[in-house]
Design brief:
mainly alpha, MetI-like fold, two-stranded antiparallel sheet, 2 strands
């Protein structure tokens, strides 16, 4: 009887967590695994060109491939009846070596018209360039590739298979990643500078004053992110509220450039992410005894010394938690930089959106997503490590 009750309780417990588990599997784990698979999977060339890889075995990769390899490639091209699949192949090869877009179309037309054509060099002189065949061999060799992951940080493999920097000017993913990290760090520091004093004031008050201050922080969370960003788009303009106020007060002679630049992005993102800084700090501050600061003053410590020696160390857990939340959220922001920032202020999320919707390159979009996820996970692991060391201390 006791075992039946225990089993019944376990079933009820699993039934309670089943909806959450199903939600996490279908809406978090499955998309994440799909993104990872897309980033390292490249089956188009290996499926469309099934005989080329075998024909190129033993090739020295420095001269024109043998006639058997050219014949195998011509036969594979003839067998591609699906134009969409052929387009996917062309995009894949062209991403590895520029020039395939026109070369493949010209070659396909030639081998289709002449069923016995096997000398591809006679069709186009570019087929004598080993670089084009190296791209074909690498693409058709295996459905798994690290090309997208390397390209996500502006790296590539040379003809010898060694990892080297991509040629200058071919990609700016690394620059965009660094810019994203810097902007997320600046927004985090701004949130700390504004959020810590605000949380201290809110924690020091009681009654309706505290509720009013917390309401001012929570109110933006009840408004759509797009609406808040659109509001800042209006406020930051040359004839917006801020510039109009500055000019009316005589502080500035003309409008201050606040939109389509990095300053505007930082201001808007700081406002949007400020609640994620204030609330963790506030939750820590309300647990600190109120008599600690008066006790420090009674021992002769001036207010600044008491704050630095007593209140700030005790509130650091909330500051670190808020900084982690703000920084991780800022890394993936898309709408605010897209609307408020200029061309040189776009973050990595904009690049991911371009590859996913503009270039239809899901492999690169997935690879950049993995890089962003890895950076976030590293930060989270560091935070857990610091938290565990603080608890042991």
């Amino acid at each position: 009887m006791t075992q039946q009750r225990w089993l019944s309780k376990r079933i009820k417990s699993f039934a309670l967590i089943a909806p959450l588990a199903i939600f996490l599997v279908f809406f978090f784990m499955a998309p994440l695994l799909t993104m990872m698979k897309t980033a390292v999977s490249d089956p188009v060339a290996s499926s469309v060109l099934p005989t080329v890889s075998e024909a190129l075995e033993g090739w020295d990769r420095s001269s024109t491939p043998p006639a058997a390899a050219q014949k195998a490639f011509a036969n594979d091209i003839r067998n591609v009846a699906d134009d969409e699949l052929f387009g996917d192949l062309v995009r894949r090869l062209n991403s590895a070596k520029s020039g395939f877009r026109t070369l493949m179309t010209k070659t396909r037309n030639a081998v289709t018209e002449d069923q016995g054509l096997t000398d591809l060099v006679s069709v186009d002189k570019r087929w004598s360039d080993p670089a084009f065949w190296i791209a074909i061999q690498d693409a058709a060799g295996s459905p798994l590739t690290d090309r997208n992951l390397l390209a996500a940080v502006d790296l590539e493999r040379d003809a010898g298979g060694f990892i080297v920097n991509a040629p200058e000017g071919t990609s700016a993913n690394r620059t965009t990643l660094i810019r994203t990290m810097i902007m997320a760090g600046v927004v985090t520091l701004c949130c700390i500078a504004v959020g810590l004093p605000f949380a201290m004031v809110a924690a020091s008050t009681t009654g309706w004053k505290r509720q009013l201050l917390l309401g001012a922080v929570l109110l933006p969370l009840w408004t759509s992110l797009l609406v808040r960003t659109a509001a800042w788009y209006i406020i930051l303009q040359d004839n917006g509220l801020i510039n109009s106020t500055l000019q009316t007060l005589g502080i500035t002679d003309g409008p201050v450039p606040l939109i389509f630049n990095r300053l505007g992005v930082v201001i808007a993102m700081t406002h949007v992410l400020l609640p994620f800084m204030v609330l963790p700090i506030f939750s820590v501050l309300i647990g600190i005894p109120k008599n600690l600061m008066p006790a420090a003053a009674s021992l002769g410590a001036p207010p600044i010394r008491a704050f630095l020696s007593v209140l700030l160390p005790l509130s650091l857990r909330g500051v670190v938690s808020g900084a982690l939340l703000v920084f991780m959220s800022a890394l993936g922001y898309y709408i605010t930089p897209a609307l408020i920032g200029g061309a040189k202020d776009q973050m990595i999320s904009s690049v991911i959106a371009y590859y996913a919707t503009g270039a239809a390159n899901w492999g690169m979009a997935g690879a950049l997503g993995i890089v962003l996820l890895a950076a976030t996970m590293i930060l989270y692991v560091v935070y857990l490590r610091l938290s565990s060391e603080e608890v042991r201390a």
